[in-house]
Amino acid sequence: METAEIRALTFDVFGTVVDWRSSLIREGEALGRTRGLNADWAAFADAWRGLYQPNLTKVRNGEMP
Prior knowledge:
flat; mainly alpha; 2 helices
C-alpha cells in the first residue's frame, strides 16, 4: 500500500494506548516523595476518574463547552 492511499490514522488513546491510571499513580508517588506528601495515589486516580467522567458526559451532551 502506498502512503498516498492512506486517508486517516485513528487511535483510541485514553485507556487503550495510554495507561492513564498507572501514569497518574507513578507521578503522584514521585510528587509525594519530593514534597513529603503521603497519599493513596491509586485511590486519588480512581476518585479523579470518578469526577472526570460525569463532566465529560456533560461536554458530550452539549451541557458544558
